[in-house]
Design a protein that fits this description.
ten-stranded mixed β-sheet; Peroxisomal Thiolase, Chain A, domain 1; alpha/beta; single chain; 12 helices
């Protein structure tokens, strides 16, 4: 079995809802990073074995295999295939897993894993909107027999996690404020410069709130009536895309490529679909066990900030040092363009590993339906 290496990783800035990227067609957003990752690496685009793209709301302008449509929109070779997958928020992290698995099996040498979500164009929950007349996803006799008619959505799940793990709301505000401050520092120090592809005149993440304070955060009403989380304690709706080029050891040697990291270990788990967002806890345990590593061996973590309580409960349960987590800010500051976030987090992680000389990085994120991916990277 061969190793799978990340050769390059790029992303667009994350645009705010209605912001600088909102006028772009989603295929053009994804095409920008596909073009850039091919150009930077210097490979012949026709040599790519497959393109695997994550996208959650696969309807409207994101329908009909946006991975393929974006590749063609970029003017890249028609002979290269592409597929679009949906593992909810972890879609493009799963794209990396599938790409690595294809390479490790020996069946493929060059695969692009990518993701996109234009949430200004295709709004949150569009594909599951019962108002469209296509039915509610959490319905049917089997679902009712197993889970009843209780609320099933991420906002309730985030609040249930805060209650179950006794996460103090003021601690959540502190964590959210730190996310913005870390992201602002990363922007000021140019930490994102090597990973961002400017698009439509936007060259930096738009969601970072430099003037935010805990006092301001407290004034925002909860997302759910009587709930715990409010908007500052949740990931921001955003537009964005990201892409990574993965290569086999043979392709690295044959094409003279310089890898950034090796895909060391991957896993995916299921978890309680009512709590929804607890999957990173068992996923992290499983991937560390499979890798033969401990939490203390990991130099840098990326745990998606879907809600403040998700990351804080994960860190509390696993005794993870928060100083190693989301060191350049997370989705509360940088945004969460659903299908793109897995690739965005991995892009940020691999560049930070390169910048700091970290040996191991671990990425995990909660996903709709009670799921989570986890990936360990090793710098080479």
């Amino acid at each position: 079995m061969t190793d799978a290496y990340i050769v390059d990783a790029v992303r667009t800035p994350t645009g705010k809802r209605g912001g600088g990227l909102s006028g772009l067609h989603p295929t053009d957003l994804l095409a920008a990073v596909l073009t850039e990752v091919v150009t930077r690496s210097g490979i012949d685009a026709a040599a790519v074995d497959d393109v695997i793209a994550g996208c959650v709301a696969q309807m409207g302008s994101q329908a009909w295999n946006i991975g393929r449509n974006a590749w063609l929109s970029a003017g890249l070779p028609v002979e290269v295939p592409a597929v679009t997958i949906d593992r909810q928020c972890g879609s493009s992290q799963q794209a990396v897993h599938f790409a690595a698995q294809g390479i490790k099996s020996g069946e493929q040498d060059l695969v692009i894993a990518a993701g996109v979500e234009a949430m200004s164009v295709v709004p949150l929950n569009s594909s599951g909107d019962p108002g469209l007349g296509y039915g509610y996803p959490f319905g049917g006799q089997g679902w009712a027999a197993n889970y009843g008619d209780q609320e099933i959505h991420q906002f309730r799940g985030g609040d249930l996690i805060a209650e179950k793990w006794d996460i103090d709301r003021e601690r959540m505000f502190e964590f959210a404020l730190a996310s913005h401050r870390k992201a602002a520092r990363a922007q000021d120090e140019g930490r994102f410069d090597t990973q961002i592809v400017p698009v439509a005149g936007v060259d930096r993440d738009e969601g970072v709130r430099r003037g935010s304070t805990i006092e301001k955060m407290r004034t925002i009403a909860p997302i759910r009536p009587g709930g715990i989380h409010n908007a500052p304690l949740a990931s921001q709706i955003a537009d964005g895309a990201a892409a990574l080029l993965l290569a086999s050891g043979n392709a690295v040697d044959r094409l003279g490529l310089t890898p950034l990291a090796r895909v060391h270990t991957t896993t995916v788990v299921g978890s309680d679909p009512v709590l929804i967002l607890t999957g990173p806890i068992p996923a992290t345990r499983k991937v560390l066990d499979r890798a033969g590593l401990s939490a203390g061996d990991i130099d840098l973590y990326e745990c998606n900030e879907a809600f403040a309580a998700v990351v804080l409960a994960w860190a509390k349960e696993l005794a993870i040092d928060l100083d190693r987590v989301n060191v350049n800010g997370g989705a509360m500051a940088l945004g969460h363009p659903l299908g793109a976030s897995g690739a965005r987090l991995m892009t940020t992680l691999v560049h930070e590993m390169r910048r700091t000389g970290a040996r191991y990085g671990l990425q995990t994120m909660c996903e709709g339906g009670g799921l989570a991916n986890a990936t360990i990277l090793e710098r080479v």
